[in-house]
Design goal:
This protein is mainly alpha-helical and about 525 residues long. It has 19 helices and six strands. It has a two-stranded antiparallel sheet.
Length: about 525
């Protein structure tokens, strides 16, 4: 297995990160708006009140705009796995491709099929039929998220798979283990509910904009109340599921949780402080300007008061035997490929779990095969490989804290606005309405930083403890990657401008612009008659 130009790897990583971040701007709103639409339309079907039909149609148009841009930005990501990450696709494609295929067959097509009926079927379907379509769209969008997050969870906690030394691939074993992985289920609920928070804030912000301008008052007040109640419940769920994911990272990915907390040395419970602020220095492996809150870290992570959390320095030391074992595994794997000896296969199986560490050591043996490392060089290579098991601490530490601060803000904001809305004091607090407008992009930012935390914290692995990122990409040239990256940035920038333009345009016009032309004409006639009568 040859090493790939590190500049190509970095450009491939940057391109995929930009593609995913662009795409993830639309995903939360798609997930959340569908169920908010379903809730609003359910009220319309039950009560028959026209105002809820008007609300559902208006917010449905904004959903359709966001959905179209989300599809356009998401399709290219799946092609990137084959074009830019061919080694990853070969190594892990059997497991990763299964949920992706199901996402396309079960979720994407179902969602896309019924979106047209949701937007254009109001006058062609009965109330109950259109409501059923809305729920099918909501189910499709969330099923789509489910399969994608199952695939992502397989990268973080590989389950239901084993490595085949004959094909050099991870073979898919158990559909049950894949789908019902604790990591997959927790990620799905956490991500989906974060989308509900984003959609709630969007509806609240646009409704607040109307209230500030004294437009569409009845629709805005009702939309605001539904969204703030939905957002309050969702923000509590996001915080709860975030704690579950933190606990699972502590058990499955100790390097990620140590980086999130900026913990260089093993904590000493129960005093261990939680670093509210710090400037982690990856090169010196220490924190600068750290401000800690004592007695918080241990119960926060371990849910106990006496369990230590292993620091990154100690995790490096613990990696020593795994790296050595991994090198033995690669040696046996190479010999087995040449001889197909049962003994070589047995030796590989004995050290198979550490194979990824052997791959990780390849970076520090330039010009030579890891499996032929002389004994005199082994200690040097192991020593140089140890720091490589850690992610970028500064990025992981701060992306997590930005996400947490925003999550706390959402809970407080939703709780306060819910109280004001239920007491009918919303319009008298114009400052809270202005704050709602300015808060529209914040949940999307929080989900972006959550994604960065999860993905940056998994490094240096594409498949955790199995395949390093620097071995996963395709062997393109730097010029090819540069040209490709520039093209993607240009294209996606145009798409985002289009998204913002259309969303702002429809939001500023309000719901009346989406009513039938005949009704608009009648309203115009009535308005002109009133003017004439007023003149007389």
């Amino acid at each position: 297995m040859d090493l790939i130009n590190p500049h190509v790897v970095d450009l491939s990583r940057f391109q995929f990160a930009m593609t995913a971040l662009y795409h993830f701007m639309f995903v939360p709103l798609t997930l959340g708006l569908t169920f908010l639409l379903a809730a609003i339309e359910t009220v319309y079907v039950v009560t028959g009140r026209e105002i809820y039909r008007k609300m559902a149609k208006f917010w449905g148009h904004l959903f359709a705009i966001n959905f179209a841009l989300g599809v356009a930005t998401g399709l290219t990501m799946e092609f990137e796995f084959g074009t830019n990450w061919s080694m990853y696709s070969h190594f892990f494609g059997d497991l990763f491709g299964t949920p992706l295929a199901l996402e396309g067959l079960m979720a994407f097509f179902m969602e896309s099929t019924f979106v047209g009926l949701l937007v254009f079927g109001w006058d062609r379907l009965s109330r109950a039929s259109h409501l059923a379509v809305t729920y099918l769209v909501a189910a499709g969008s969330n099923l789509s998220a489910l399969w994608i997050l199952i695939a992502n969870a397989g990268m973080n906690v590989p389950e239901g798979t084993h490595f085949d030394p004959d094909t050099m691939r991870m073979q898919f074993d158990s559909f049950v283990h894949l789908v019902f992985s604790e990591d997959a289920q927790a990620k799905f609920v956490h991500t989906s509910v974060a989308g509900y928070v984003a959609a709630s804030m969007l509806i609240m912000g646009i409704s607040a904009f109307y209230l500030l301008r004294r437009q569409h008052r009845e629709m805005a007040l009702r939309s605001f109340r539904i969204a703030t109640l939905f957002g309050l419940i969702s923000s509590v769920a996001v915080i709860t599921l975030g704690d579950v994911l933190g606990r699972m990272d502590y058990q499955k990915q100790p390097t990620k949780i140590a980086a999130i907390e900026g913990l260089w040395h093993t904590s000493k419970p129960p005093f261990a402080p939680w670093a509210a602020f710090a400037l982690p220095d990856d090169a010196k492996q220490e924190n600068h300007l750290e401000i800690g809150i004592p007695f918080v870290l241990t119960p926060l992570i371990t849910h106990s008061f006496n369990q230590p959390i292993t620091g990154m320095r100690e995790l490096e030391e613990q990696a020593d035997p795994h790296i050595r074992s991994g090198i033995i595994a690669l040696t046996a794997l190479k010999h087995y490929g040449e001889t197909h000896s049962k003994q070589d296969l047995a030796d590989f199986r004995a050290h198979e779990d550490d194979m990824g560490y052997g791959f990780l050591a390849m970076r520090h043996s330039p010009g030579q095969d890891v499996s032929t490392i002389p004994a005199s060089e082994l200690d040097r290579i192991v020593k140089q490989t140890q720091p490589d098991i850690l992610p970028n601490v500064f990025v992981t530490f701060w992306s997590f804290r930005i996400m947490v601060v925003l999550g706390g803000y959402f809970f407080i904001f939703f709780a306060f606005t819910t109280l004001l809305s239920l007491r009918n004091k919303l319009e008298s607090n114009r400052w809270i309405l202005k704050l709602a407008v300015w808060s529209i992009p914040l949940p999307v930012m929080a989900t972006e930083f959550g994604w960065i935390t999860a993905e940056a914290g998994r490094q240096p692995w594409t498949v955790f403890n199995r395949l390093p990122t620097f071995l996963s990409s395709s062997s393109h040239t730097v010029s090819y990657m540069t040209f490709s990256l520039a093209g993607f940035i240009l294209l996606y920038s145009v798409l985002i401008v289009a998204e913002f333009y259309l969303m702002f345009r429809f939001a500023r016009r309000g719901p009346e612009t989406h009513e039938p032309q005949e009704q608009n004409s009648q309203d115009s006639v009535v308005s002109n008659l009133n003017i004439v009568q007023g003149g007389h």
